[in-house]
Structure formats: C-alpha cells, structure tokens
Amino acid sequence: MDVKTTLQQQMQALHGTLEAAIGDCPAEALTRKLPGSTINSIGAIYAHTIFGEDGLLNGLVRGGAPVYFAGGWAPKVGLDMPQGGMEPDWTVTLDINLFRQYAAAVYEATDEYLAKVSDAELDRIVEPGFAPPMPVRSFIANLLAWHVATHQGEISALKGVQGFNGLDLTH
C-alpha cells in the first residue's frame, strides 16, 4: 500500500470516529462548560477540530482558501473562523446539523486531495510556524491525524463525564 492510500484511509477512519462521537451528542451538552474545568465545550472543540483541518490542509498546505470560504459556508454557519489555537473561553453556538454538513465538505476536500496528491507534493516541506518544518506526508500523518484523534477523545470524555455514551462505534 502506498503512502497516500494509507493517509487517505487514516483520515477517513478518524473522520468516522469523530462523527461517531459528535453524532449522538445531545444539544444541551454542546455548549456546556463543566464547572471548574479548563477544557472548552464539546461544540467549541468540534468546531476547532474542523476549522483546524480546513485551515491547515486547504490554507497552509495547499495554499488556497479554506472550504469554509471557498464553499460559501461562512455566511451559512455564521462563525468567525479562528486563526491559530483555541482559546479556553471561546464560546460557540452551533447549528450542529449545518456544521456537520460543513465538516463533511472538509472531509471530502481532504479525501479528494489525498486521492490525487503526487509523491513530490507529499515530499514538499511545509513550515507551519507552530512546529518544525516537515514534509507534507508527516504533517498529515502526525499533526492533522493527531489533532482529529485527540479532540475526538476530548469530546468522548466530555460526553462521558456528563452521563452520555462517550463513543458508540456499534453503528
């Protein structure tokens, strides 16, 4: 199996797990910030994860406009796309069904890019600014994949401590 197929399968699996975590999240849990905690709400973490993949892959790596702007999602969703990390007090109110449609468009763009990317492009060095320069393949395999996996875990844990099923992979 080649690297781009492996990356494509990895990102597809992670997208599936993230959507399994958020898919049955009750509306009241999306905006709840746990008392005394320093972690953000489930909705903010989910939005940050999707905005991050869109901005990092489509903006930084590909050098284009994120799907959020190029696909006309900004006026529909109505949130400012943050630049950089997630502030602990960032509060978002999401139309979760609409935001999940935007997430699907981001996933589709990632999948299409990975299906067509050349080995030369995967070898190209990117300079994210928040991490050392690295080949695109490493950026995707390590930073993008890690980002989705880590935040999916936070979402699942936050659901669990609120009394909901953290991650149901039986569907």
Structural notes for this entry:
The protein has a single domain (3-161), classed as dinb family like domain (Four Helix Bundle (Hemerythrin (Met), subunit A), Up-down Bundle), CATH 1.20.120. Helices cover 62% and strands 2% of the residues. It has helices at residues 3-23, 27-30, 42-61, 67-70, 73-77, 96-116, 119-123, 136-161, and strands at residues 125-126, 134-135. It has a two-stranded antiparallel sheet. Strand 1 (125-126) and strand 2 form a beta hairpin. Helix 1 (3-23) runs antiparallel to helix 6, helix 3 packs parallel to helix 6 (96-116) and helix 3 (42-61) runs antiparallel to helix 8. The two termini are 27 Å apart.
User: What do the pLDDT scores average to?
Assistant: 92
The proportion of residues in beta strands is: under 5%
Structural class: mainly alpha
Gyration radius (Cα, Å) is: 16 Å
At the fourth CATH level, what is the homologous superfamily?
Answer: dinb family like domain
CATH architecture designation? Up-down Bundle
Please give the number of β-strands: 2
In the sheet with the most strands, the strands line up as 1-2
For the record, give the distance between the C-alpha atoms at the N and C termini, rounded to a whole number.
27 Å
Regions with little confidence, pLDDT below 50 for 5+ residues: none
Could you spell the SSE succession in H and E letters? HHHHHHHEEH
Number of helices: 8
